[in-house]
């Protein structure tokens, strides 16, 4: 049987079982995977220059004839050096190869080659160390691929060429208008050109097509999930006036809160199940949006469930919502792991009889045997803790229930549209009035004692504070990073020294849920003055009296994560501050921390995080259920992303099942299966 794009890579001539395993490490299993493995850059071999014209200290391609090959010398165990001289008719170039036995053996004396590397030495004595070597007649751009041990760029290029020679032209996976409208080249041209372009322009055109395809598949996959769900129907709700609810609030809602509520109410009244994400920075007041929706459902005779990722948060919601909603006549209950079996039984029974209007609890709440009499709405708080898969199973559970998810992880809008392509989006881009800016300082370890003094001053005034450390214990064997401040040892040290006599507490990820809750409760009650903690306090904890935070090894955290952490202070009316302590040397790390001192805008921080760390590392990306992208760069390719989104929408509108585009449908389905796991 002939080779097809779907053939396993081991059927390609020259690739056996061994090489196949190496390719698998790069995520390449089929011939098409190999062809879509795009170079990350190219060496420009179009115009080799004479040795003397190559600029000193710069990369250059020179054409020269191999003369004398020196013998191999052992520098130390495992390291050999060999020198080769080459001549271009005017000047001599000395080439140095380390462990280059096979490369040097392949050079024939008297033959001409292209050497690519950094030109060094003096005017009279030119040198190049470990240059890349190419046949003398080669011209064009030579690909550099993302690699893994045992594979070279030359080797991959050769395999790609073998595959392309054996394959007929690639068919287009979608109608012609897509290509015309988005100005992309054909797939066949892209795959044949990306591995051996003759110019940067050709490479660019080829790459753009492959990026477009990757993003289109992604958009179709995520939008497909959304379409699949909106075909269900639910009983539309009555449009009752929100005034009684608004009148009961101690403060007027912000315009952004009102807008989000109105958008959610539209969904509830539409007859198709609501699937809405409310995204708003820490402290933007998402809870009130949820409360309004629950109240609206109650007015319509339906029950609601509010789920939080931790017991602490569930209890916090219960405490803050009970006075308001019970005052309006609703019946609230709390259901968490701390309830006794009897309490759980009773509360569930009441829920089933319809005697509870809003149940608040942890995620486990709606799983298992919990039953409602008439469930109208499921609200999930701090959604970034749950992946796409859980979200899907969740909405499946309520069989057509309305779903509202709330997230404080600010995500650039373009990205949100892909990640949450299956959700409608409401953004709360406004903070309640009177909110104070959290003063943020970035200092080195030499100022630690002064920072401690500053914290003591706040504690003495009756305020509380946090010290955040990146790791629980120093664990040299288990991947712990030596030198990191470790929370438990840290606590002991400051308890003996700078904070002797203060009431200290410890919170870390290895503690049991019950222990954590006890510590948090004690902190919330003001018994603990200073809480030493790992990042477990990150989500939603609300202790308005805590006004100061110190973050150790701040460079270890993602910026978005730091932003979340920082949001734990500044929740009351007192001026709050956050001190980032870091001895990081690198410019990039310093630049990142400096940004934190300059802005409190979570979206700007997220954009910066995305730009400087790359989408693969973007905080929470994996948790958002976004697959690792092969070639597209969501930050740099946002324009193509927008085109892909529009195209995906139109394709799905015209042909919802993609019946006329089996290739595309197949790819999207594969991706959906992958992400929904
Ligand atoms: P988050 O979006 O982080 O979940 P919360 O809902 O916890 O924010 O709200 C943070 C604080 O702001 C709470 O104490 C809440 O009572 C208060 N709040 C919410 N909305 C407003 C508003 N419109 N005006 C004044 N304070 C508000
Ligand atoms: Mg919240």
Which terms would index this structure?
single chain; 677 residues; alpha/beta; eight-stranded mixed β-sheet; seven-stranded parallel β-sheet; 22 helices; globular; binds adenosine-5'-diphosphate; binds magnesium ion
Radius of gyration: 31 Å
- Bound ligands, each once: adenosine-5'-diphosphate, magnesium ion
Please tell me what the overall shape is.
globular
Number of strands: 23
What fraction, in percent, of the residue positions are helical? 25-40%
**Major sheet summary line:** 8 strands, mixed
The total count of helices amounts to 22
Q: Quick check: average pLDDT?
A: 84
Indicate the structural class. Answer: alpha/beta
Low-confidence stretches: 386-390, 473-484, 614-624
Distance between the termini: 33 Å
Q: Can you give me a brief rundown of this structure?
A:
The protein is of the alpha/beta class.
């Amino acid at each position: 049987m002939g080779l097809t794009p779907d053939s396993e890579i081991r059927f390609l001539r020259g690739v056996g079982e061994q090489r196949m395993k190496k390719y698998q490490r790069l995520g390449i299993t089929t011939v098409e995977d190999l062809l879509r493995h795009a170079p990350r850059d190219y060496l420009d071999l179009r115009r080799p220059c004479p040795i003397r014209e190559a600029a000193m200290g710069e990369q250059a391609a020179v054409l020269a004839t191999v003369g004398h090959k020196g013998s191999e010398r052992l520098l130390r165990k495992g390291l050999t050096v060999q020198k080769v001289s080459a001549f271009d008719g005017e000047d001599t170039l000395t080439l140095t190869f380390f462990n280059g036995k096979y490369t040097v053996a392949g050079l024939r004396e008297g033959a001409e080659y292209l050497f690519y590397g950094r030109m060094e030495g003096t005017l009279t004595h030119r040198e190049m160390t470990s240059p890349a070597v190419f046949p003398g007649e080669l011209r064009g751009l030579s690909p550099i691929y993302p690699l893994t041990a045992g594979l070279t760029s030359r080797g991959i290029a050769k395999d790609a060429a073998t595959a392309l020679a054996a394959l007929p032209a690639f068919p287009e996976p979608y109608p012609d208008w897509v290509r015309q409208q988005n100005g992309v080249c054909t797939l066949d041209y892209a795959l044949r050109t990306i591995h051996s372009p003759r110019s940067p322009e050709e490479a660019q055109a080829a790459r753009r097509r492959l990026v477009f395809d990757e993003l289109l598949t992604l958009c179709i996959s995520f939008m497909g999930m959304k379409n699949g769900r909106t075909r269900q129907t639910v009983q539309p709700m009555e449009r009752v006036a929100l005034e009684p609810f608004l009148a009961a609030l101690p403060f007027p809602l912000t315009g952004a809160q009102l807008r989000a509520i109105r958008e959610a109410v539209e969904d509830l009244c539409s007859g198709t199940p609501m699937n809405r994400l409310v995204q708003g920075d820490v402290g933007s007041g998402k809870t009130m949006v949820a409360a309004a929706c629950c109240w609206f459902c109650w007015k319509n005779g339906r029950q609601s469930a509010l789920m939080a990722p931790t017991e602490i948060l569930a209890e916090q919601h219960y405490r803050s919502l009970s006075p308001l909603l019970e005052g309006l006549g609703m019946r609230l209950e709390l259901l968490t792991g701390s309830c006794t079996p009897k309490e759980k039984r009773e509360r569930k029974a009441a829920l089933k009889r319809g005697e509870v209007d809003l149940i608040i609890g942890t995620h486990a709440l709606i799983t298992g045997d919990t039953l409602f009499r008439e469930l109208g709405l499921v609200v999930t708080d701090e959604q970034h803790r749950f992946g796409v898969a859980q979200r899907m199973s969740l909405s499946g559970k309520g069989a057509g229930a309305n779903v509202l998810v709330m997230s404080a992880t600010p995500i650039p809008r373009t990205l949100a549209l892909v990640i949450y392509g299956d959700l409608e989006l409401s953004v709360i881009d406004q903070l309640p009035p009177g909110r104070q800016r959290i003063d943020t300082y970035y200092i080195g370890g030499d100022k630690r004692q002064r920072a401690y003094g500053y914290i003591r001053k706040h504690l003495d005034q009756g305020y509380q504070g946090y010290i955040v450390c990146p790791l629980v214990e120093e664990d040299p064997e288990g991947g712990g990073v030596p030198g990191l401040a470790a929370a438990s040892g840290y606590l002991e040290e400051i308890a003996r020294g700078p904070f002797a006599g203060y009431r200290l507490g410890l919170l870390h990820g290895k503690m049991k849920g019950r222990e954590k809750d006890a510590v948090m409760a004690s902190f919330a009650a003001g018994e603990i003055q200073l809480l030493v903690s790992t990042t477990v306090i990150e989500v939603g904890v609300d202790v308005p009296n805590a006004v100061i935070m110190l973050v150790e090894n701040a460079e270890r955290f993602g910026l978005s994560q730091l932003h979340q952490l920082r949001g734990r202070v500044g929740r009351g009316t007192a001026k709050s501050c956050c001190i980032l302590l870091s001895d990081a040397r690198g410019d990039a790390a310093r630049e990142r921390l400096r940004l934190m001192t300059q802005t409190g805008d979570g979206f700007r921080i997220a954009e910066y995080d995305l730009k400087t760390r790359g989408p693969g590392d973007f905080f929470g990306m994996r948790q958002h259920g976004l697959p690792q992208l092969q070639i597209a760069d969501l930050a740099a390719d946002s324009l193509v992303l927008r085109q892909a989104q529009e195209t995906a929408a139109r394709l799905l509108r015209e042909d919802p099942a993609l019946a006329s585009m089996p290739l595309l449908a197949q790819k999207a389905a594969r991706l959906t299966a992958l992400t929904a796991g």
